[in-house]
Amino acid sequence: MKCIEISEVSALAAHVKPGSSEPVLLTDHGRVVATIVPADEDDAQSMLLSINPRFGAILERSRRRLESEGGLSSEAVRERLGIPAGSRGSTRRAKRRPKGKRG
Question: Of 43, 46, 66, 93, which has fewest CB within 10 angstroms of its CB?
């Protein structure tokens, strides 16, 4: 992966701004060669995983195993882990705090 500071690409700087929700298409003689889409850190991590061949292979291996061996329901997982059936953990992710700040 390549990472370029936006200030290094002066022609793009006016079109790619923090808080923007509009994608930008990069073209070469009218043909699209790349797309810049607004993203945060989580979006970037998800995108990088989605194009990582090793991660894709892990997912595919897991899909094949699920098809051949079956899976467990969430109730069965709770039972195996000794978690009471009625209890549910938080499904929301904790917000990250900026480094150096404590609450």
Answer: 93
